[in-house]
Design goal:
124 residues; six-stranded antiparallel sheet; 3 helices; globular; binds heme C; Cytochrome_P460_sp; Cytochrome_P460
């Protein structure tokens, strides 16, 4: 889980398929082919309902979804981008903007080499 402040102002969950989660647990890097990591993001909104129960403003919950991003490992197919294919969906539909897709790898390439272009660490 992560919270981005600033203009994004979202709350996000990162999920992996079995291959990705097993690699996380075993510390296997690079991730093997077939690993899929999903990042789901939602607006970060105060919960008046929960705050009423707590008696003070302290509760924030996911609001409307913003977008879902995916990293898919296939070392051969995505050889030019560190072995990862990237995708973004809004409202269940793929975002086909080439300009957007060109932003993913250069930024993920800034992750430490030992982390195989992935920023998120495993939370047991
Ligand atoms: C400006 C840098 C930047 C760009 C551009 C960017 N990411 Fe990320 N991405 C991050 C950071 C930092 C995290 C971890 C923090 C977080 O989740 O809030 C992350 C997390 C992720 C994750 C969860 C796994 C991981 O690597 O931590 C996925 C999946 C992901 N990004 C996909 C994408 C896709 C797809 C694109 C392009 C559409 C993209 N990212 C563009 C910086 C970036």
């Amino acid at each position: 889980m992560a919270h981005e402040a600033g203009s994004l102002n979202d709350i996000r969950a990162v999920l992996g398929n079995d291959i990705a989660v097993q690699s996380y647990r075993d510390g296997t890097r690079p991730f093997p082919d077939g690993a899929v990591i999903a990042r789901l993001a939602y607006k970060y909104v105060p919960s008046e309902e929960n705050n009423a129960i707590f008696g003070q403003a302290q509760s924030f919950v996911p609001g409307a979804p913003t977008n879902a991003q995916f990293s898919v490992k296939d070392a051969q197919r995505y050889a030019d981008t560190g072995g990862w294919g990237f995708g973004q969906f809004e409202d269940g539909k793929p975002n086909r903007s080439a300009a957007l897709m060109e932003t993913c790898y250069p930024c993920h390439a800034r992750a430490p080499t030992k982390d195989d272009f992935v920023f998120t660490h495993y939370t047991p």
